[in-house]
Amino acid sequence: MSTIPKIVILGAGYGGILTAQRLQKELNYNEADVTLVNRHDYHYFTTHLHMPAAGTDSIEHTRVSISKLIDEFKIDLVKSNVQEIRLSDKKVVLQDGTLSYDYLVIALGGEPESFGIPGLSEYAMTIRSINSVRLIRQHIEYQFALFKADESRTDRLNFVVGGAGFSGIEFVAELADRIPKLCKEYDVDPNMVNVYNVEAAPTVLPGFDPELVDYAMDVLRKKGVQFKIGVAIKECTPDGVLLATGEEIKSATVIWTGGIRGNRLVEAAGFETARGRVKVDDYLRAPGYDNVFIIGDNSLMFNPEGRPYPPTAQIAMQQGVTCAQNVVSAIRGKEMKKFVFSNKGTVASLGKGEAIASAFGKKYKGWVAAQLKKLVDIRYLFTIGGIPLVLKKGRFL
Amino acid sequence: MSTIPKIVILGAGYGGILTAQRLQKELNYNEADVTLVNRHDYHYFTTHLHMPAAGTDSIEHTRVSISKLIDEFKIDLVKSNVQEIRLSDKKVVLQDGTLSYDYLVIALGGEPESFGIPGLSEYAMTIRSINSVRLIRQHIEYQFALFKADESRTDRLNFVVGGAGFSGIEFVAELADRIPKLCKEYDVDPNMVNVYNVEAAPTVLPGFDPELVDYAMDVLRKKGVQFKIGVAIKECTPDGVLLATGEEIKSATVIWTGGIRGNRLVEAAGFETARGRVKVDDYLRAPGYDNVFIIGDNSLMFNPEGRPYPPTAQIAMQQGVTCAQNVVSAIRGKEMKKFVFSNKGTVASLGKGEAIASAFGKKYKGWVAAQLKKLVDIRYLFTIGGIPLVLKKGRFL
Fold it and tell me: Which residues form a coiled coil (chains A, B) (predicted)?
């Protein structure tokens, strides 16, 4: 162990970036070594991925180089894949090396949860990274090109989105906006294209106000989305999906947005998990390890009513701020702060110019909600990168 | 048979459009019924297809609605596929109907010639229509997206262009121009990408001046093209190509440009053909059928040295003009005109800002030749659509 403590942060998503930035600000010179480990040299805006996935916005509006967000004189950046977390050794094994830590912040992203539905991990695509959304975007456009080369394959014009939570609804809205453009580009009759949204739960956007849910479904139906709500996907095959109703939807494109679970590395580290997530204490620490903090997709916390908070960007960012404070307090031997989630509201985009939002006890829809969505995006860019990042990545449409 | 003769033109490519436009101009009111049959409602610029195929220009710069080129008050336009030419009945069977004719102009496009190489028609793509180039463009970009989803598949970054004639060279040049942009867009190291041009003949661009050929190869090598000249493709497989040398190139993308043959419908009509092409008389008429004219890809004519003219846009257009004159002469009982090819020169594009050309006994290369190429394109647009078409479709980069 070196004379100054080593802090290792795994993952540069919402939680990891906020932790790193706050540590960079709080720590005095030579007070600690901070290393941020990330698979890519860029940070991406997970809540924006549905747009490049559908092809309605560019990849470059969806990511930023990490070196633009942190000061590399103060924080070491290691681009590598994490292979293993060795709690007993206080080491992290990377694809190309090993890091030892005194304090560890696990801010790794979650993984798609397929709920054991056969074929889903083989044949469905998921919206979870820059690479995955590039694949989805190109796959969709390729179906149009393939269809024009063999017009008997009308199933190539069927698109199935599994899951009607946040990601599912926001993606299906963008896809519905994109279809007319693809039809024009490829001389395809829009009536031949089918966009299905299949959800096993009895409603879309669970947790949202029913009036807003109705509004959202109405907007999406008008854009051409066909809902199958309260219908589970029984199996995903190379030819499409089989539904619990016995119906088969033939499709070469299934996008699964049905949920996420914790990262398998966390389970493999030996923590007790529920769907891959670890119940952390009030200070965001893993049970039994006072020097290990878990935030974001892999942390499990309960609201005052005893229900788990869903893993969102908003909670990950707030956890990042508290986590950084608590790591500094631990180093300084000061008292740590309990994490309290402060709900700033929720906005779900419904494609161009449309959204629904609940914030400050009020409901918003349509144009106003769409402006709120932009505000949330811009505020985030400002938080992590100031005005230069807002100007570079912000969409002012 | 109606009281006025019926003229049917099959195909609205270079030859067919020129024939239709000249007939429209020459024929008096009620002198004949003219019907133009085409599979699509647009005419496309075959000599420009290599650009949208590589993704370096748009589809909309490569086609024009036929209704913008002909006067539908004077010529009937039928959008359909030709199924059969019944010479004995003077009928043409379409996918959705039958047309009878007094004069027939066969201006259908040719088909890719695979020279019996196994697997080529199954696994290789060809540059021959708007739909086929959209497929090629999307297929190429999809390989980059797939590679980023599974970086072990480096073969997805190998691209094989079979054939180093006009189409092969012009396409491989555009592809080489496009690769750096795709690499940037997908965060791929350009050194991982391989573009191969494989040609069985001992030289690229046969018929071109050797000095210009050397220049062309030099330009393309600098753009990263790897040549395998004098090497035949023995087989095309789902995994790539096997060469006559025993070498295998792993690739998910094989584009075959090795030659074209006549349309199978022409052979099926009962004409004697050589590689699907019919040796026409000096007046462009099919042997034994004074009322059937064959122009473009399906006609076989010999130059004064006894060698067959290659099927080019230039000869098809000139044939279209003579064909229209001769049909009018036939109707009016006047003497027909012999077709004489007038070589206006040849330009091969080598990608952005580069080309080689032979014209008026002179050789041109580099920037000057690239300007000549643009001039040829613009002159064609002007010929068929006047200044409005030049302004709408011309590329003035």
Answer: none
